[in-house]
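Retry 2 of 3 after timeout on previous attempt. Resubmitting structure tokens to design endpoint.
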């Protein structure tokens, strides 16, 4: 590669780093503070120490410009809410009394004040706290946190760039406050918000910031002309400020599309763009917009969301093309490294053959530095690392783990017939009625029963060797006996085994499928102090042996009522894992679907007449841009049908969805062709039942009657009332009676009471139907 003057300035940078620390010190400190075991000063000291360690790591690896202000006790969108003074009325007193306690009150709620709503950060598994804004929202700048953290980084002698959520994205992520008039659009507050950003920028400038980054990921979604006009206005105002730091506007997670020429023309000093995956289209977009003459481009060429080693040569070639399009090109991961675990070298149990394919935050930081060096000094300067990278990539391509011929040929042989039940719904339904003999309005649950302390202890005891596999199995069996006995006594119609053996609905299956990899320390923040360890879809997927049949059959042996088999669907398996980057998602989904298809068939062969395949993540995995929806829904629904269509007509297939509103994917729900679907519905007063009815949904559905997110027990009158509301939309012959979701986070007392009320409600309404 030739070295140009622009290239000689290439710097390595990033937008954010995992917050938790090597041993999740942050989680321990924050939760300790909540419990009163850690003082506020000790919490602050832990946080400052973590920031210092992370900055040292980054600069030690060769990052030239580190991010500041990306650290958070809970969530960076909540930090932005504090920064702009948009504290909801109900939390204001708490925040005034004590800023830290008030902050956590907004995040977690108090006895008297509900927390802010939480929702997914774009299409990641990180959740942010939704700002609540209304016409009366009085913004006021509070730059303390940003200024203080910048000061800490500068005091270490580092070049630091504060990272803020940009004003347009902040407003687009907000929802109307509870008392806002109907139809209120938070974006109308832009002109009031911009002076607050101006003040924060001035404070940061005074504190020594040369550059400030404003993150505008909301601009990678489809945006209306009015929203794009808001972008123009926002950056005309902020760019036009005198005595301001230089502004870098960042976007990530997809291509910018129509927002790219808007930002390219804005009077800011640089753009940070994603060039990975579908966002690679930013390359053509940038060229079409005439590049960024006179501006800085930060090129996100290291995927900040997956855990795979970067193809350094490919990235260098992208960077080489970009050199012609901007005044200065710097190198970074595509987004904050918040979304990946900290350090792959901590994974001592992972086969070293596979470990060399993996890059977590530390490894991605090093890749970023290597690429900046290569860009500045030419490829000779990084020849050794390029050779090692080539070898790692080749070992992955050629590995029997990545390519299993048996899986490949089976996947290739899938036909449309494999993805269709052998009979249409009406005939299946008749056969199932004959086989199952269920009453009108059959009652069931979603699968899990309370994951008690005793169960968690049993798993810990097994891990620690205090009990052996037999001992563990005995405890699980005892639990299943109790769950079955309770359901029989309560009078439920279709029983479940309760899922006591499952730590997590994805991990349990990941641990039993070849091609999946579990990590020991691969923690990623899901929200607040909740961290998850997503499994890694590392290779071709196959099922060495049945995964659930033993437990379901055991449960069935204890009762004459049907016990529902319980599996996690292919889309949800992908959504809550790190996916492969070397083949289309659709191919991976198909492999998982075939493994599940075998499990479904084995369950059927073992005498299971009802099998549920959960797809709670079907809605949340929708691509960010509408243009991608149809293709996604096509492969997603096909994968579900592939998993479930291999059964006899009289085997009843259920599915379950939650955590979302489903109005816009009812056609996809229909395309699943499941005999019965259960859905979260209690909080919306059965809204989804009306949506299914409006669509003409032809099969059976169980809109949830009990909101399982709190210990509150809905009484008989309330439950029966919701059921009658459901009946207005769905005829009795196709209506099921069930809670919103699984009960694993609930305690036994409320589980008992609520399910008894649920059964009583079904009986009451059945009697009403008989009488009329
Ligand atoms: N079967 C699972 C359970 O009951 C479903 C969980 C979910 O939908 N998230 O726990
Ligand atoms: Zn659910």
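Retry 2 succeeded. Sequence:
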């Amino acid at each position: 590669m030739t070295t140009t003057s622009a290239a000689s300035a290439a710097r390595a940078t990033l937008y954010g780093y995992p917050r938790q620390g090597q041993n999740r010190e942050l989680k321990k400190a924050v939760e300790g503070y909540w419990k009163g075991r850690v003082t506020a000063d000790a919490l602050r000291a832990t946080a400052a120490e973590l920031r210092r360690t992370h900055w040292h790591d980054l600069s030690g690896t060769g990052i030239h410009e580190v991010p500041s202000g990306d650290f958070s006790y809970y969530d960076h969108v909540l930090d932005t809410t504090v920064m702009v003074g948009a504290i909801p009325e109900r939390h204001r007193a708490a925040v005034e009394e004590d800023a830290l306690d008030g902050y956590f009150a907004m995040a977690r709620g108090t006895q008297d004040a509900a927390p802010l709503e939480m929702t997914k950060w774009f299409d990641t598994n990180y959740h942010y706290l939704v700002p609540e804004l209304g016409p009366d929202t009085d913004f006021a700048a509070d730059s303390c946190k940003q200024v203080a953290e910048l000061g800490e980084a500068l005091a270490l002698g580092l070049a630091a760039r504060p990272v803020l959520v940009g004003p347009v994205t902040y407003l687009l992520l907000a929802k109307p406050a509870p008392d806002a008039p109907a139809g209120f659009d938070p974006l109308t507050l832009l002109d009031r918000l911009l002076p607050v950003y101006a003040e924060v920028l001035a404070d940061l400038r005074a504190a020594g910031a040369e550059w400030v980054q404003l993150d505008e990921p909301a601009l990678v979604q489809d945006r209306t002309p009015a929203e794009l006009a808001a972008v123009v206005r926002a950056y005309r105002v902020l760019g036009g400020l005198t005595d301001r730091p230089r502004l870098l506007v960042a976007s990530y997670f997809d291509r910018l599309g129509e927002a790219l020429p808007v930002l390219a023309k804005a009077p800011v000093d640089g753009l940070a763009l994603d060039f990975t995956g579908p966002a690679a289209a930013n390359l053509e977009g940038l060229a079409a917009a005439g590049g960024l003459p006179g501006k800085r481009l930060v090129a996100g060429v290291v995927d900040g969301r997956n855990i795979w080693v970067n193809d350094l040569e490919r990235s260098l070639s992208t960077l080489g093309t970009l050199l012609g399009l901007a005044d200065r090109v710097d190198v970074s991961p595509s987004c904050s490294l918040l979304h990946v675990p900290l350090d792959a070298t901590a994974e001592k149990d992972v086969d070293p053959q596979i470990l060399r394919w993996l890059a977590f935050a530390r490894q991605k930081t090093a890749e970023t530095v290597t690429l900046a060096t290569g860009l500045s000094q030419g490829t000779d300067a990084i020849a050794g690392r390029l050779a090692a990278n080539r070898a790692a990539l080749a070992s992955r391509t050629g590995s029997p783990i990545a390519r299993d011929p048996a899986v490949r040929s089976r996947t290739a042989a899938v036909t449309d017939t494999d993805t269709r039940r052998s009979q249409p719904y009406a005939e299946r339904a008749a056969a199932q009625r004959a086989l199952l003999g269920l009453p009108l309005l059959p009652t069931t649950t979603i699968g899990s029963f309370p994951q008690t302390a005793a169960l968690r202890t049993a798993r810990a005891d097994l891990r620690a060797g205090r009990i052996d596999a037999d001992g563990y199995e005995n405890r699980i069996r005892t639990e299943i006996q109790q769950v079955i006995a309770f359901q029989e006594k309560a009078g439920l119609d279709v029983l479940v085994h309760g899922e006591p053996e499952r730590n997590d609905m994805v991990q349990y299956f990941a641990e039993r499928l070849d091609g999946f990899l579990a990590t020991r320390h691969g923690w990623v923040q899901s929200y607040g102090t909740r961290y998850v360890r997503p499994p890694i879809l590392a290779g071709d997927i196959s099922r060495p042996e049945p995964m659930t049949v033993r437990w379901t059959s055991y449960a069935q042996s204890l009762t004459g009522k049907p016990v529902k088999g319980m599996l996690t669907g292919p889309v949800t398996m992908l959504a809550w894992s790190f996916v492969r980057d070397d083949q289309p998602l659709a191919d991976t989904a198909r492999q998982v679907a075939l493994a599940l298809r075998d499990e479904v068939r084995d369950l059927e062969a073992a005498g299971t007449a009802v099998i549920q395949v959960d797809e709670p993540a079907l809605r949340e995995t929708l691509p960010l841009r509408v243009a991608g929806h149809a293709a996604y829904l096509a492969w997603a629904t096909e994968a579900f049908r592939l998993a479930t269509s291999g059964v006899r007509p009289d085997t009843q297939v259920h599915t379950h969805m939650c955590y979302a509103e489903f109005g816009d994917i009812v056609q996809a729900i229909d395309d699943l062709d499941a005999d019965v679907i259960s859905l979260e519905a209690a909080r919306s007063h059965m809204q989804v039942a009306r949506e299914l009815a409006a669509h003409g949904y032809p099969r059976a559905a169980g809109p949830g009657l009990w909101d399982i997110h709190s210990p509150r027990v809905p009484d008989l009158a309330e439950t029966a009332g919701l059921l009658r509301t459901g009946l207005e939309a769905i005829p009795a012959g196709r209506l099921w009676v069930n809670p919103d979701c699984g009960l694993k986070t609930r305690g036994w007392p409320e589980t008992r009471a609520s399910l008894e009320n649920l059964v009583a409600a079904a009986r009451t309404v059945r009697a009403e139907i008989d009488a009329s």
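Attempt log closed. Residues 748-771 form the longest helix (24 residues).
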